Fold these 2 entries.
Entry 1:
Amino acid sequence: MDFQSIIVNALQAAVSPEAAIFALAAIGLNIHFGYTGLLNFGQAGFMTMGAYGLAVPVFAFGWPLWTGVIFGILAAVVFALALGAPTLRLRADYLAIVTIAAAEIVRFLVRATSLSDITGGSNGINGFSSDFYDLNPFTESIKFGPFSFLPRTMWAIILGWVLVLLGIGFCYLVVNSPWGRVLKAIREDEDAARALGKNAYSIKMQSLIIGGIFGALAGMMLAISTGSVQPSPQDLGPPKTFFAYAALILGGTARLWGPVVGSIIFIALLQFTDGLIRGAQSAGWIPEWFISGTEVGVMRFILLGVGLMLLMLYRPQGIFGDKREMAFDV
Amino acid sequence: MMIGAVLAISVALLVFLSPTAGAQDDGQSINGTLQYKDDSGERIPVEGVEIVLRDAGGGDLGSVVSGADGTFSLELPGAGDYAASIDVESIPAGVSLRNPDKTELTFNVVDGQSKALAFPMAAGEAGTQEAVSQSAIDSLLRLGMVGIIFGLIIAMCSIGLSLIFGTTGLVNFAHGELVTLGALLTYAFNVGLSWPFLLAAPLAIVLTAGLGGLNDRLLWRPLRARSTGLIAMLVISIGLSILVRYFFLWQFGGRRNPFRQYSLQEPLVELGPISLVPRQVVTIFLSIAVLVAVALVLQRTRFGKAMRAVADNRDLASSSGIDVEQVISYVWISGGALAGLGGILYGLDRGINWDMGFDLLLLIFAAVTLGGLGTAYGALVGSLIIGIMVQVSTYWIPAELKSVSALLVLALILLIRPQGILGQKERIG
């Protein structure tokens, strides 16, 4: 088994566009869950809004790519309003149920054959991202020591991490503003915040919208970096949301850098175990009847489930978290 | 650790029954011929239809387009589970799938096998052959009947979820996996070990009930003792759900299979437009009997009274001498049994696969919230409404969008009457 290449691959995954996508989605969840205490299990729905908002104008109407960015953000805002209106006055678990269901419904809708002229049906949409890659200044692969990135990947990496840094900067400003302190007040005691004259419903809605826009940015980043949008569960279904939650909790909720560090470590860890299993397979240490070639992808989900449970059981504050700053008592 | 014991039992049950096979070898492939019979009975090949292949995890493995003689074939990377879906858009005009809902086949390929796939096709546009001869009322009655059966199955699964929520406050995302477990265990006994279905099903229900109880004993009771927050428990249940669901995928593969018995039946009852096969009749009577029994237990027995007391006010129940932990234990056991039975009936109706419970879970949530979180009768009412809504709505909207209607009803109810149809106001907090 080639440990060096497994580790190189894992480190390369840590800075990949995929890690930046999870970081963006997790920053949004951090605003929802970490700072406001909103249980949004439909982040994949916001990502779907971003990804399809970006791709549909190019695919269906032939408009330039930048118009898609506007549509993606608008779609996320509308989705947040539609989700929040019936649920934000109710207890937290209602939002959880409605968001996970709504995100799946959105995915069923974009996958529907009857809408395939607009959304591409179950084939998704390809070939909308050329406006972005035409601007790519890199013409050949970039190499640092053992690491090497294709020009396309490098360009997507730069966009992804610039977005993440801007997002962190935005969060820093927002969370330390008076508005950010009201968010935390609502998380700690909604009745107290209301008694002080704060409109908790409206502020929760604003939080849902802002976090949702980060979800939409993650979806756009996913669409851009892979050059396609696919309505599959892996890309835009519930597992995506749960991966983002695991990354957030691993890094630490209600911490500025929690979602970013969590995503980097989580993606590297997933890639590492993937590599380890594949390596052990090709070395003949894992018999084929136990884990077959096509089943390696399943293992990362089992790992996700175990990881999520163990984290919540033994270290719910994650790596950087502070138990006093948690939206849930443990 | 705690979940270890639960898993160890499932592993023991599942691993040796698992149908996945042997060592790696070259030469696995899929093949098939797309054709239909025209009016004179002659076979006409269908050219230019795209078939997309995915692995068990959903990863894209490429696609193939049928040739002039209608044939297609594609090499596979190895033995294992795959899914092939036909691109409906690429089917030429005037031809359609004989069963428009069956656009995807999931299957298992053993080493060296060349798997033949069939996508039966017919002349004419989708559904036209049937639709011509049926009036609107007939179709609606038929869909309503299917909806009632579906609603009864959802009710089986949702009463347990609702009672668990009522007594412990836990929104159990892993409840769908109990549903799947009931069906998968029955499948393992019925198909894997060739036991008769009528022996396999009760045994599976007993095991599901036991695993439900064990689940509470080993995981949730210690967490309650530690006074873990409800949201933390919710996230843990999501972790458990993912873990168990993908464990099922790993062990059982991504196929959808029927039970060995009762999958092909002639209609038993014909009432005007409605015709029911025996298994549907049994499903209706069995689930009504079980639901009446649940209601009687809740209303008439000491245990039922204790259960309602705990759901109403845990501390008060505890201080009036009710053993709360024991009541919760029984709730989990009976919830597990009901979910297992629901899963078996659902499997009888449309086959068994690894994520059937999770698919159903969204509708279960909708039903429970609609009826009122934490109330047993609310779950029943909500389930019937959701079941009928989902099926009847397919008269107007494409079948692939049928869950959308259920969610719209849910959102509407939450806006107008957030506590649900039978819920009490103080529960929504």
Entry 2:
Amino acid sequence: MATPLPAAVPAENGRRRPRRRRSWAGWRFVGPFLAIFALVFLAPVAYSIYLSLFRTRLVGGTTFVGPDNYEQVLRDPQFWSAVVRVTLFLAVQVPVMLLIALLVALAVDSGRLYGRNFFRIAVFLPYAVPAVVATLMWGFMYGTQFGLVGNVNEAFGITLPDPLSPELVLASIGNIVTWEFIGYNMLIFYSALRVVPTSLYESAEIDGAGQLRVITSIKLPALRGALLIATIFSIIGSFQLFNEPSILQSIAPNAITTDFTPNLYAYSLSFSGQRFDYSATVAIVMGLITMVVAYVVQLRGMRERG
Amino acid sequence: MSVPVRIRESRRRVAPPRSTGRSTSARRPRRSVLLTALTGVVVLYSLVPLVWLVVNATKTQQGLFDSFGLWFADDFALWDNVVRTLTYDDGIFLRWLGNTVLYVVLGAGGATALAALGGYGLAKFDFPGKRAVFAVIIGAVAVPGTALAVPTFLMFSGMGLTDTPWAVVVPSLISPFGLYLMWTFASEAIPDELLEAARLDGAGEFRIFFRICLPLLAPGTVTVLLFTAVATWNNYFLPLIMLRDRDWYPLTVGLDAWNSQATTAGGEVVFDLVVTGSLLTILPLIAAFLLLQRFWQSGLTAGGVKG
């Protein structure tokens, strides 16, 4: 979830420049990146497609099975329950996180805060915390042993619902992810707001537009592209959910099963089950689902922009 | 969305600016206590876990269980904890720290270099196959990274690279975001005329890049370096699957291993070391972000998100 991806091709220089000669020289600069890219991106994609077409049995060795693995994934209740879980996560966590990030960005940009630099930095800081540390920290705080939940229970003589119970653990993970990425998304929105020309605000003021009107008429339209990018990153991140549940597993082993998310399922299939061919198929199907959803969101976002 | 258009028209109507005094007052709105307090809630949410971490790094294992989470226990054991974290298990924490630094220097340094070269190449050259390069990179980027992990592991295992630093460093060398940022940055920061002039003077392409363009790209490079460094420092999934040998673990995987000891049969419970180790792990990053904020904030605004 941490790696943002390019969502749009940057415009070439707007002004007409002297026409550049077409030559092979550019390859010398792009070549090294492409070589490594082929090794760690293209080759694994090709290899996992190859793997997914075979099946290895203890007896009989490896045989070509064509689409059999895919059919099995599509009928696999463990896979689908994991997909439903991350979809639920996506539907709740992403809007909450983006809304809070948006509100903070608007507040910081409005210039009405005391000490706004402090606010910007403080909210961004969790992004510098590794998912491992974030999860361990929250996991301890959730715990009844020496966590804050236990403290509150003791202090008030009540029993709060256990955040690490099977019913609540998904929401607890949502809270960790929200904590990690509010600041990052806030920064994306804030950067987009900074490039709005001040003349727009000046003319809005001359027109007598209030703060709310400035937000709905100038700021939100200016944020549309950033919102689209942040949404797509978050969709990809949610579908890939792995680190937080994987680390929480040792703190809450009963709440998090080995097929909790599609990625965790693929991981367990490979490294505990040695079923590399099936694991690769799960990863491919999940990758396709992610690409389709991200693509649909992007199309819708582009259409609404018009 | 007709409203912004109307506003722009009205600006044209008042084209000759009347008073500059008014507009400067518009850019300096009154500060609001209410808004500050509301945003303060989010700040509190962001900082409380970090405060918890600092407070609890000062406690003994017993103190962790006995005392209130957000306040100090009776014994102040921070220095003792730090010493024990650094020396536990023959000082394996320092070894993990060294590994992490190695992965960050090679991985993030290499990723930044490749992104700077590639972004410059894409921004400033027309070459055969450029469109295909765009298409492949943008298409492949939509593939979830973790979906590639298992096949990458199998490939690397076939090449004998697993359980070596290369298994962590090589995949870290590719940062599509870094490439994108450098590409946008190079298109804007380097005028074509400058390159033409240098070529007329007979300078070679690489000489032009290193002597003339690299200094111009500095803000973008620092931003990419910072973000790839964080990504590498925080990487968990990749080293988790690539490394079996504890001696090659980075800090993230090591901390997770320490934490899991509590649930493994026969493992020593070392929550105090997990908490203190976590604090030591995030300090360098937080320091880097605070010290370099001038760079990454301007870099993000310049090249960041114009989608």
